Amino acid sequence: MSAKNFAIVSTQSNIEWVGRKVTGAHNGTIAIKEGSLTLHDQQIAGGAFTIDTTSIRILDVTDPATNAQFAGHLASDDFFSSEKYPTANFEITAATPVNGTLYRIEGQLTIKGITHPIAFDANVQQQGDTLQATGKLVVDRTKYEMKFRSGNFFQNLGDTLIYNDFDLDVHITAKVA
After folding, report:
1. How far is residue 92 CA from its own chain's centroid?
2. Distance of CA 111 to the CA centre of its chain
3. Which residues does 49 contact at the CB level (< 8 Å), separation at least 6?
4. pLDDT per residue over 8-42, tens digit each?
5. Distances (CA, A) of 100 to 35, 68, 119
6. What is the C-alpha separation between 143 and 176, in angstroms, rounded?
7. Structural domains in the chain?
8. pTM, to two decimals
9. Please, which contacts does 96-105 make with residues 24 or more away whose CB atoms are closer than 8 Å?
10. Three-state secondary structure call for residue 170
11. Which among 120, 125, 150, 151 has a CA at the least distance from the CA of 138?
């Protein structure tokens, strides 16, 4: 059994997020601070990464004042509580090969100190000493005490309703450690 550890290259890895509301959507990026992936016999066997919640950027709001206000709101206790919880974490608990480079990844996602299981499909490709992994996580924000304008907790929100699920499109580049 041959094992290889890959360190995530944070400057070549990131997460693109999308949050939706009744009247549209917002999108942006968030940085991966650090992490690693482990392969046993050329297959994903484990891994974890840390997300820097203080790095949240909004890409679709071009007015600087509005963008800063929105970023401040995402960092507030209504959403990520970035001052109290500057990081979020994901840890792989199982990786099942589906076909070719596709895996079903199961793991534990921790946001604001709250941990829940999550599963998603990921494409993992190795070329020499470099590993590329991409996957899309759909996260129910209400499980992590992000209830602001959620229809599960507030009535008569009309067009101010924010949907509970948000998407995290994860793009990881890792190199043999």
Report:
1. 13
2. 10
3. 8, 13, 32, 33, 34, 35, 36, 89, 90, 172
4. 999 999 999 998 777 778 899 999 999 999 999 88
5. 24, 43, 19
6. 35
7. 3-176 (2.40.128.110)
8. 0.88
9. 97/43, 101/125, 103/44, 105/44, 105/135
10. strand
11. 120
